Please model this.
Amino acid sequence: MSAVAALGTVAGFELEGVIGRGRRSVVYLARRPGDAQSIALKVVRKAQLQGPGAAKSPAQEYEMLAALAHPHVIRPVGHGEAGEVAWLAMEYAAGGSLALENAALDAARTATLLREAAGALAWIHEQGWVHRDVKLANLLLRGDGTLALADFGSACRTGSESQDPPGTVIGTPRYAAPEQSEGAPADPAADVYSLGVCLYEMLTGRPLYPGETLTELLGQHLWAPIPRLAEELSPWQALVDAMLAKDPSQRPSGGQAVLERLQNRSRNPS
Amino acid sequence: MRVESSNQGQTDFPPTEAASLEELFGVASTPAEEPARDEPQGGLATFMYARLRNFGPTCETMSGPELTAFVNDVRRSLSDAAVKLGGEIAQRRPDSILCVFSHRPEDRVPVHAKRALHAAILTVHECVEIAARVAARPQSAGVPPLSVAVGVHLGVGEVAPRASNAPGMVHATGEAVEIARLLQVVAADMHWSVVTSWATRLAAGTRVEHGRRGTLGLPDDTFLEVVEVEGLVPRQGSTTPASHYEQLRESLHRNQQMARAAANAAAAASPGQPQGTGHLLIENYRLLRKIGEGGLATVYLAQPMAGGAPQVLKVLRLDLAGGDMDLQRFIQEYALLAQTDHPNVAHIFKQDFSSGNAYIAMEYFPLGDLRSRMKQALDPGVAVYFLRQIAAGLEAIHQIGIVHRDLKPDNVMMRQDGMIAIADFGVAKQVSMNITDTGAGDIVGTPYYLSPEQALGKPVDARCDIYSLGVLAYEMFTGMKPYDASTARELLALHVNAKVPQLPQHLQRFQPLLDKMMAKDPAKRYASATELLDDLERLGQ
Model:
């Protein structure tokens, strides 16, 4: 990406800074001369889009985002190719990602953010998609404080079989549901698990499990007991336990089921 | 080609006119009339991209005629030498220039690389003169000094004449142009005045002196060996005074100092800001091939330029390292390991920073790992021989406070002399497979060697490595895994709950050893690798 960064522009967008980096892409804050609004520009080298295990192309991701328009899904602006790279322009969420918070959030804020994220998942699950990479770094905050679910690069249709060899990490080790790395077909319950990890992290400001290697984390997602929340957070324990159930059939089945549990919870606060 | 004449008077600096260009470089100084060209010419040419740093802040201290004169001076300094040496201007901004040096019909052999590198050196020389003049102004106090960075690359590019309203200007596009620009960025980041590719330096002949060297990772995952240009050697029988070459060398050096001073000032002004632009440049190594890649780190096989056996380089991109914690642990652990000179621990040659990257240079094991030796049961004597060495390696790293956490045959490496050494310790794994990053492509190993406390998410200490070594020992003795199951979940259940398996009758004397390594409760295991070694010692008697 350095050659691109050194140029300073991609497809007429002036790059203003790097917002994020993935393994295969760089996300820039960018602006077209004359435009009032900055956008987030995801830039992928075209060479990364070929071959087995290749990333979803910006064009594919654009189509998906356009079809999944929802108040809490990141809004696509455009896509295209420029020389060696392909790009996807999206709304810029000025508040950054929840991963930047690095501390526990208060209960009311957590409830609001969880409801918004679950709402976005309910919608994409209803449309037959699984996100597969729900994590704090992909829960973005807009300037007005509302949440936008981002990065659909790992998303796939519900029920589709993994194309990767067994044992391949899908999603992010710290958040991935235990069955997700075992080659299970894509299922909304996996997104519920990952959102459960996010919920735990929002409530406590700490990682769910202490693993520092891939194998440790795999073991802990599969086998470690779900940590107990501190006394003042205990009203959340039941929901955390349900979302983080090791057995996917024991979890709320998708975003909608999480929303329903949240509503019941606020109606009958325990 | 027409060069617009700059109407500034002669400067008081002895510039390029001190000797004829013909004399200096052995190339014609007056470009011949070029035949008209309409078609874009794809072919080999040398591209030079030069950019002046801190041009903007300097301009802000000026106004009126002084500003105009300064802008004109910069414009002339960036282009004069290139144009005199037959370069065509492809892009010009107030603070930068892109020039193309193509093959000319009158050259019997291609000399464009030589002309471009000479132009680069002279451009630095000219810019240093401007920088000195600017720095002498009282208004420049507190303004970061001017410096120039130049990238030069010989390669394939498309060159086409511009529309008739810009005589002498050309369009230049293609890979070589991008590389020249990237080399300019490298020059700026490394505070090297002129950076060129090794091949360009070779093509330019023997008179270009080079300084530091390294390998640059290009965006398409290929490598380019690059070199810093330090000066020119006089031609044989040259009549140009040696002092002229001294001046050029001095200018390149002076420019470097200015660049460094400006960078230090910038770093002091905004501490904590990541420096560098994210490219990969490793000094003093030739990268041979990429061996692996994780979230934060890329692993290369690399040859030290000073000679010697190939080494493994683990390169950590600092701009990706989210938490400073990870980075600090990476640095600390390797600082400790570098001091550990133990025959059963992979040797760490070096750990260093290079242009926005932290890297470690580690021993390379061409014979690979223990996995290849474990297809069947080992002779008990060999198994004990290996066991003792791994335990000794663990003892060494535990003594400096490092827990391996991921001991398995893949991390036990074979040396040519029959010794074995443990590798991939501690945070190395974590760093190379960032657990908060999308793991696309990473493979999670089946948890054959994971201790119960690791699976349960309990605190871990050195004793988790003893457990893993127990699993490994069982496998070496029997050729089979102590616990196996069709799913990771069932396997973990066995680690947590199942009895320690029994060794076959003829290996029974090792059973107590195995029981104390694989005990479910860490408190019932060997408290240290040293205790295990003591027991192994007694067995041997």
About this structure: Confidence is low (pLDDT under 50) at residues 1-40, 271-276 of chain B. Chain B touches chain A through 48 residues (CB under 8 Å). The two ends of chain B are 89 Å apart (CA to CA).
